[in-house]
Amino acid sequence: MLMTLPPDDVLYEALVTRDDAYDGRAFVGVSSTGIFCRLTCPARKPKRENCHFYSDVADCIHAGFRPCKRCHPLTPAAQSDPSVTGLLAALDADPMRRWSESDLTRMGLDPSTVRRAFKRHFGMTFLDMARQRRLANGFTTLASGKVIDAQLDAGFDSPAAFRAAFAKLMGTAPGNFAKDALLRAAHIPTPLGDMIAVCDKRALHLLEFADRKALPNALARLRKMVKGEIGIGRTDVTEQVAHELAAFFNGDSAAFTVPLVMHGTPFTRQVWTALRDIPAGQTCSYGTLAQTIGAPTASRAVARANGANQIALIIPCHRVIGADGSLTGYGGGLWRKQKLIDLEKTYAQRTAQ
């Protein structure tokens, strides 16, 4: 089903509490001011009778409302935050720079404010994001070089610090990865953050955002399921994954044809297959998905299967939302789920034309 807004009373409560679950997916037009805002706008809250709710900015503008100058509803949430945009540009310009809180202070920024802003928009701090960007460079070097080379390429002075950072990301130290393993882990950059893909020569086994806390456990489960080790490197399947992800984020295609190995029970594989049948640009609830697979009373089991998905984006668990239209949980972070849904609206609009 296409995403529909929850009742106005639910949205007004979200407006009053500045609930970011609907940020970018619902807007409020205030008849007493002629302004439309995000539900997270810091301005004083209007009376209930003056509020009209819309699912996109076009409807707000067509209704005669002007965009708010405080919450900037015409721009993505992160881009409307000046403490975020400048740092993202600086990180893109020099991805190998080792940032510290004193650097932020010298730029006239309050480190605690920056920390909260990045956690709110991206689910991680700016310093964590910068560290991951550097670590990704060392990850690539590991595929063909020595650990010490990877450490230097990642900009870590200390071998222990590099090993600790890598182990936090992958669940094991860089020297523990098998050189002759059939499964190979590789880093793939995307506009929504670095991803880790694990492939063999035939298929994709795992695709997760690198900052997901569950990644080390997911890799450990994969090792157990395949009864083998994981090495570092790329295969032809890895290159196909990278190519199809690039096409997806460029707005060229939402079709993924890379072969998959879905490690799960028959029920979870049934749920994951049903997820792939949800067209890009559409969403459904857990209850609707349960009905689709012929198990209408199994909404909770469907939700657990959704959360156990280890192939992000390609098995699109981000297309499942709460029955009331809220985003609900997403392992990659609600901010990513919102951006994926927004991106896929363009595919839905293209199909409707």
UniProtKB/TrEMBL annotation:
| Molecular function GO terms recorded | DNA-binding transcription factor activity; methylated-DNA-[protein]-cysteine S-methyltransferase activity; sequence-specific DNA binding; zinc ion binding
Q: Which residues form the active site?
A: 37, 317
Which Gene3D superfamilies would you find in this protein's record?
DNA Methylphosphotriester Repair Domain, Homeodomain-like, Methylated DNA-protein cysteine methyltransferase domain, Winged helix-like DNA-binding domain superfamily/Winged helix DNA-binding domain
Q: How many cofactors are bound and how?
A: Binds 1 zinc ion per subunit.
Coiled coil residues, start to end: none
Keywords assigned = Activator, DNA damage, DNA repair, Metal-binding, Methyltransferase, Transferase, Zinc
Q: Which cofactor does it need?
A: Zn(2+)
Q: What is its EC number?
A: 2.1.1.63
Q: What is this protein called?
A: methylated-DNA--[protein]-cysteine S-methyltransferase
What's the top EC group for this one?
transferase
Which Pfam families would you find in this protein's record? Ada_Zn_binding (PF02805), DNA_binding_1 (PF01035), HTH_18 (PF12833)
Task: Tell me which Gene Ontology terms the entry assigns under biological process.
Answer: DNA repair; methylation
Record bears the keyword DNA damage: yes
What family does this belong to? Answer: Belongs to the MGMT family.
Native source organism of the sequence:
Yoonia tamlensis
Q: Write out the catalysed reaction.
A: a 4-O-methyl-thymidine in DNA + L-cysteinyl-[protein] = a thymidine in DNA + S-methyl-L-cysteinyl-[protein]; a 6-O-methyl-2'-deoxyguanosine in DNA + L-cysteinyl-[protein] = S-methyl-L-cysteinyl-[protein] + a 2'-deoxyguanosine in DNA
